[in-house]
Every structure is written in C-alpha cells, then in structure tokens.
Design goal:
Blueprint lengths: L1 H19 L4 H8 L4 E6 L9 H17 L2 E8 L14 H21 L5 E5 L6 H6 L2 H12 L19 E8 L1
Parallel strand pairs: 2-3
Antiparallel strand pairs: 1-4, 2-4
Helix pairs in contact: 2-6
Length: 177
C-alpha cells in the first residue's frame, strides 16, 4: 500500500515539475491569432448560460483592460462537455449545440452588458470543414492555432488526469488597439 502511495506522490510531483515548464497555451493561442489578452470562462456540465460569478469575472477583466487600452475585437472559443474532436471523429448534435449556446451566451453578455461591438464565436466541438480548411477561413485559422498550441487538445492528448482538457470551458481572446 505504501508503495502505491509513494508512486502516486512521485507522479504528482513529476507532473507539477513538467507543467511548471510548459508554456502558457492560452497566451500562445492568443498571440497566434493576434490577441494580447485571454480569460477562461468555466461552465458546469450541461450548463448553457453564464453564471453570476463568471459574469462578474468577465466584467472585472474587461474593466481593467479598458483602463489602459481600447478593445478592438473579441474571439470566443467555446467547448461543450467534451474535448476538441480528433480528425474524422463524430460528435453528437447535442454537444455541438451546447458549445454553440455557450459561445452565444458569452457573446450576448459581452455585447449587451459590456458594450463590446465585435465578438466572434468559434465552436470548439466541431472541427473546421474541408472547405474551411481549403480557403483558410478565420474559423480554420483560430481552431488550427488552438490545436497547435495545445489549447485545444483532443481527448487522447488531454493528459492522464485531463490536466490539459478544455471541456466545459471557453476562452475569451481580446484584441486591443
């Protein structure tokens, strides 16, 4: 029994050392798409709407940004209750709809309550279409950047304890003027 406990502690210590040296994938993703600031948003499983706590945190985040710069645009990357799908992986319509509703909830709050004009959403439960990939659309660029930096890991790359996982979250990426 003590051997198992020691092994778990060693693995936890090793994981802490490794993760301490990993680059911040959220900042790396923001920089790849031209944003300078990023804020995570968390949802309870199955939840479609922003909690009062998340609204408050977004308000504080944007208030502090507005003190120094003007906000040019915002991109919202919204996940459902699952990770970014691997290539050719089928995703349920329910999960796709959940991510879409989460993105729209954030967009509505930012535009209506925080008066941010330009907010684009990206459904991170869907991979870009072949047509989107061919034309290198905005959606393709954002999703491929998030995947390349590790901010959008597929289920098989989320880590043993899903420490890199993004399910039930969204990222708010802010471009400042």
């Amino acid at each position: 029994m003590t051997t198992i406990i020691r092994l778990v502690l060693i693995l936890g210590f090793f994981g802490a050392i490794v993760s301490a040296h990993q680059p911040d994938v959220e900042i790396a993703t923001a920089k790849m798409i031209g944003a300078s600031q990023v804020a995570p948003v968390f949802f309870d499983p199955g939840a479609k709407k922003l909690s009062a706590e998340e609204k408050s945190e977004l308000q504080v985040f944007f208030t502090s940004l507005r003190e120094s710069k003007e906000i040019k645009s915002v991109r919202v990357l919204a996940w459902a209750d699952r990770e970014y799908p691997a290539k050719d992986e089928k995703v349920s319509a329910k999960q796709i709809a959940l991510a879409k509703e989460r993105g729209e909830a954030i967009r509505a709050y930012l535009q209506k309550d925080l008066k941010i004009k330009t907010v684009d959403t990206h459904n991170m439960t869907e991979r870009p279409s072949k047509l989107s990939e061919f034309f290198k659309t905005n959606d393709y660029e954002v999703k491929s950047s998030a995947e390349a930096t590790g901010a959008a890991p597929t289920q098989d790359k989320a880590g043993v304890f899903e420490e890199m996982g993004r399910s039930t979250t969204a990222l708010v990426l802010v471009v400042l003027e």
